[in-house]
Design brief:
Chain A is built from 11 helices and 1 strand; from the N terminus they run ααβααααααααα. Chain A is mainly α. With 636 residues, chain B is mostly helical. Classes of the chains: A mainly alpha (287), B mainly alpha (636).
């Protein structure tokens, strides 16, 4: 098991953006069909990415390219740490580092749209992060370790001990995937007042970098959900994709809500779910 | 010795009227102190170094202490502040009684230098010395702004260096009476340095700091009494080894109260915010390394004696409360130094929380946080001071686009902020360890409460730092020609050295842990930490330190390459195509084609989270928790 871990990780890291891209392609196709359009081919996101990368670079602030690159790079690092079965708490911190890069990059754009986008992205971060950390705490309560490898060594799937934590993660899935009703900062639907606020000032190559990073983040989050079903990782992966498709459908049904509503819902429901689950696990003696 | 030397040099600096000569004296003192503090590491090598001074020194200390208290009394009458008078009398009368009835102040050994003292001494000598060097430039600029007829700098440097000496004395002292004396000297310096500008506001805030500090003094006197009558001596060492009984724990609770006042924990947080009125080197000094760290030091010192007591957890609760509320309050602040002040109180709270949790990993986390906070916060204050002397504003909204105007200072500030809350820098290593320590070692019902407190607090922390960082970078693109910024030599020396140290020590954090922290805690706790290849490995998690730093460096290098390869044409900000051609890029056509200048600001939530709304509640909760500390000290 030990010796091929680096190889599997490498393969996973290489494959991840393809999965992310295809998911994004399926998303667009599905959305188009729901809206009675034909939609682009499934591999359209890859064409887009290549085209964006080749475009001339316009910058609204001198640091945006660097920050966009950092966002992408740290998303990759976070995913790599996950597949290398490292410390989950550390991974959550690295994810927040990536997010901070994006937020600061967007803020520094000086356009009012990107400024507001950055603010909202920060608020999204504010709502997700505590739930993520509490989920990690919940996982610790079951496995007695923060290492991802300990989840893989469990004889039963995590979901059996942590159903409420899993549910809480599902609630923040639309935030991480930038989907309605919580796509406060970067909605791509036309029913909002500011469309893609956080990306307004990013264009060409830097937008390509961010898109690429987002695929990684998406796959990262779906892998996190998959882990709850270990040792049946395949079942977990399939279920994670199904949840993602449900999110896509919800995305097309719900309008976007205000950030205050998002913060309230995510914090109240998320905290209650995760903490009650942690307490339950503790009372029942660690699963 | 490290104590007397800076005091003497301070007196010399007081006498010197010449700016240059004073500069040389201060720099020399700084260099000698830094070298001698490094030698100290060698001295302690292995076992704590102890020193017993002849009894005559005890008499000197007693005499000086009464002189000091008499001075406080005089100040109390002069500013007509009843609290100062009462609190001073509450110390003088019991101490006088004590002196006349039981004259044995002498304790063997007088000074103990163990690893905790060394860590503190290193922080004090290196950081404060650098702050003093920085002050050489800063005070000149500062006085230029104030248009003073006569310079007050000699006095300023006297108190700075006196402070340094007193702090060193404080961390070495084993005799409670000595400890108490140095404690009061720091209160004195604090008072004098805050009122340095002698504006009415400064004097008012100085008095506030004074009476809050004196509460700590009273608590200290109480613990001296209990200690003497229960243990039969004034040795802190013996007090720590005494078996737990309610009365002994009460002495510790008094010491903890003294520590709360000095570290500005929640019911006492207002003095530290008031202290922001002082010149920036003072804030840096009060905040980062000394004054406030004295309280933390005391808690860390007594923590091992409080293992597995309710008292310890109550202390953790006070720290947790401070961490949580100050992080939230900091969001609502616009003034740079107040944000830094709140963040300081919060991080001290976090360290106290760790000490209160009081387990092996938590203590390592506390010491890591102590070291890294000192460096990062000193850096931020020094940076903030430089900016303030150039922008003439402490409002962070006026700091917009500072990265273009003052690239070097801004870069230093940005590094400072990153090191406060982002991986893989020092503070985050500490915070990571804190979380893991609490979850894996603290009693469960407490662990969940503390964890939620820390999580909410650190999310708020991320929020205000990220917001501030973004403000520094926010700028319209056409001013993009980065010009080279010139800084005076003292500024450069101090800030660059601390920046370098901050990052370097984080990379070799494992060496810090193995040479200083583990030897300190291993006599009380079992070590649950190993350091394979200079990375952190606990029994529950792992933190690869230098691989992350290498990754960070790689990301930066490749990122710069990408910028170089792709170039980039500056464009005006997007405003739906309503930009006004030929004007500044932030001007746009508004209704009826009138031209407007774009301004962006916000996200302070001060109507909801502002000080006036929440301050009285948190003070009440703080007072309640402090009382709880005392109640729980009676429950063994």
């Amino acid at each position: 098991m030990e010796w091929f871990l680096p190889f599997t990780s490498l393969i996973l890291v290489v494959v991840a953006p393809f999965i992310g891209g295809i998911l994004s392609g399926i998303d667009r196709k599905l959305t188009a069909r729901i809206q009675n359009r034909i939609g682009p081919p499934i591999i359209q996101p890859f064409y887009d990415l290549i085209k964006l990368w080749g475009k001339e670079s316009f910058i609204a602030s001198n640091f945006q390219v660097l920050l966009a690159f950092s966002y992408m790079a740290f998303s990759v690092v976070a995913f790599s740490l996950l597949v290398l079965a490292q410390d989950l708490l550390l991974i959550v911190f690295v994810v927040s580092l990536a997010d901070v890069c994006l937020v600061v990059g967007s803020f520094s754009g000086r356009s009012p749209y990107s400024y507001i986008g950055g603010r909202r992205e920060l608020l999204q971060m504010l709502s997700c992060e505590p739930i993520l950390i509490l989920a990690v705490v919940g996982i610790y309560m079951v496995t007695k370790s923060f290492l991802v490898s300990s989840i893989l060594k469990l004889s039963f799937p995590l979901i059996a001990a942590l159903p409420a934590v899993f549910l809480a993660l599902l609630i923040i899935l639309p935030i991480e995937a930038r989907k309605s009703p919580f796509d406060i900062s970067a909605s791509h639907h036309a029913h909002q007042e500011i469309v893609r606020g956080v990306f307004t000032e990013f264009s060409g190559p830097s937008l390509a970098l961010i898109e690429f990073g987002h695929w990684f983040k998406l796959v990262f989050f779906l892998s996190l959900l998959t882990l709850f079903w270990a040792p049946n990782l395949w079942l977990g992966a399939v279920l994670a994709f199904i949840f993602y498709f449900i999110v896509m459908i919800i995305d097309n049904i719900f309008p976007r809500l205000t950030w205050k509503f998002m913060l309230k819902v995510v914090w109240i429901v998320g905290f209650i779910l995760t903490i009650s689950n942690i307490v339950a696990v503790a009372l029942l003696g660690g699963g | 010795m490290l104590i007397a030397f800076p005091v003497v040099m301070g007196l010399i600096a007081r006498g010197l009227k010449n700016v240059k000569a004073r500069g040389i004296v201060v720099s020399l003192t700084a260099i000698i102190l830094i070298i001698s503090s490094l030698l100290l590491v060698k001295l302690v090598n292995g076992a704590p170094y102890t020193l017993t001074l002849p009894e005559i020194w005890d008499d000197v200390i007693v005499f000086l202490d009464f002189a000091l208290l008499a001075y406080f009394l005089y100040v109390g009458f002069r500013v007509k502040h009843p609290l100062v008078i009462i609190l001073t009398l509450l110390q003088i009368i019991p101490l006088a009684y004590f002196e006349f009835s039981l004259p044995v102040v002498h304790v063997e050994p007088t000074l103990i230098i163990d690893f905790l003292s060394v860590i503190m001494a290193l922080i004090i000598c290196i950081i404060v010395s650098l702050i003093c060097i920085y002050a050489l430039s800063y005070m000149n600029e500062h006085e230029e702004h104030l248009h003073l007829a006569e310079t007050r700098q000699p006095r300023f440097f006297l108190y700075m260096l006196l402070f340094l000496g007193a702090m060193n004395g404080l961390v070495f002292a084993n005799n409670l009476y000595w400890l108490y004396f140095f404690w009061e000297v720091t209160t004195l310096c604090c008072y004098q340095l805050i009122r340095h500008d002698e504006t009415p506001q400064a004097i008012k805030n100085a008095v506030l700091a004074l009476w809050m500090g004196l509460i700590g003094g009273v608590a200290f006197v109480a613990s001296i009494f209990i200690g003497y009558y229960q243990v039969g001596g004034l040795s802190l060492n013996k007090l720590m080894l005494a078996p737990h009984s309610p009365i002994i724990l009460l002495a510790f609770a008094c010491l903890a109260l003294a520590a709360f006042t000095k570290s500005a924990q929640v019911p006492f947080h207002s003095w530290l915010l008031g202290a922001m009125i002082a010149p920036t080197p003072v804030s840096a000094l009060l905040h980062s390394s000394t004054m406030v760290k004295a309280g933390v030091y005391l808690i860390l010192r007594i923590a091992p004696a409080l293992r597995e007591t309710h008292l310890s957890l109550a202390i953790a609760a006070v720290g947790g409360l401070s961490f949580l509320v100050t992080a939230i309050l900091a969001i609502s602040q616009r003034e740079s130094k107040r944000i830094l002040a709140y963040s300081t109180i919060g991080n001290l709270g976090l360290i106290i929380l760790c000490a209160g949790v009081n387990t092996s990993l938590a203590m390592v986390a506390a010491l890591l946080l102590l070291v890294f906070h000192a460096m990062s916060k000193a850096l931020l204050f020094l940076g903030a001071g430089i900016v303030e002397n150039r922008v003439y504003s402490r409002n962070i909204e006026d700091w917009e686009g500072l990265m273009v105007r003052f690239p070097l200072t801004s870069a230093i500030m940005l590094i400072g902020m990153s090191t406060m809350f982002l991986p893989p820098f020092g503070m985050l290593i500490g915070k990571w360890l804190t979380l893991e320590a609490i979850i894996s070692e603290a009693p469960l019902q407490w662990a969940i409460i503390l964890i939620v407190t820390i999580i909410v607090g650190s999310v708020a922390t991320t929020f205000f730092w990220a917001k501030w960082m973004a403000h520094l970078l926010l700028h319209p693109p056409e001013t993009g020609k980065v010009k080279v910024e010139k800084l005076q030599a003292p500024y450069l020396v101090s800030t660059i050295t601390i920046t370098f140290l901050d990052i370097a020590v984080a990379i070799i954090a494992a060496i810090l842990i193995s040479t200083l922290i583990i030897p300190e805690i291993k006599s009380w706790y079992t070590i649950k930490l190993s350091l394979p290849l200079l990375n952190l490995l606990t029994n529950v998690g792992a933190f690869p330190i230098w691989p992350l730093f290498i990754t960070l460096a790689l990301v930066f290098a490749v990122g710069l390459l990408v910028i170089k390869a792709k170039g980039g044409r500056p464009v005006p900000p997007y405003m739906c195509g309503e930009n006004v051609a030929g004007k500044e890029s932030t001007v746009f056509y508004s209704t009826a084609d009138s031209e407007f200048n774009l301004e962006v600001s916000g996200m302070f939530f001060d109507r909801r989270l502002g000080e006036p709304q929440v301050d009285k509640y948190i003070t009440l909760i703080g007072i309640f928790l402090t009382i709880l500390v005392f109640i729980l000290s009676l429950v063994v």
